[in-house]
Amino acid sequence: MSDFQMSPKVRELQAQFVTRDPAIMDGVPVFKGTQVPITTLVDYLLTGRTLRHFLEDHPNVTREQAIGILEIGRRLFLAEEELGQNMWKPKIHPKTEPASV
Q1: In 83-96, which positions are buried (b, 16+ CB within 10 angstroms) versus exposed (e)?
Q2: How is the chain split into domains, by residue range?
Q3: Residues 43-80: pLDDT tens digits?
Q4: Which class does domain 8-83 fall in?
Q5: Rounded to 5 degrees, what angle do the CA atoms 19, 21, 22 make?
Q6: Which run of H or of E encompasses 52?
């Protein structure tokens, strides 16, 4: 993954929608102007909840911000595909067999 460079558009979107500040949530990336971690949106979507539910539960996050974060993910995924890398592949730990007794 050493050849991976974020595009200027991804950097622009991050500057527009993401804050990383040690004074806010210990530096966890949050939606700009909020204390809502970016991962909260991802968690909602991964558990089958909708963007609408996320926005209803987090009224200080705008639809534009949420869509911007999804756009960052899309662009990073497409960039990775172009490079033939797979930074999204889950890290799977090999199964360990229980010790014989």
Answers
A1: eeeeeeeeeeeeee
A2: 8-83
A3: 999 999 999 999 999 999 999 999 999 999 998 888 76
A4: mainly alpha
A5: 155
A6: helix 51-57
Which amino acid makes up residue 96? T
Give the pLDDT mean for 80-85.
Answer: 62
**Cβ 10 vs Cβ 73: under 8 Å:** no
- Provide the CA 8 distance to its chain's centre, in angstroms: 18
pTM: 0.74
CA 3 to chain centre: 20
* Residue 15 CB-half CA count within 13 A: 7
CA distances from 101 to 94, 96, 98 (A): 21, 15, 9
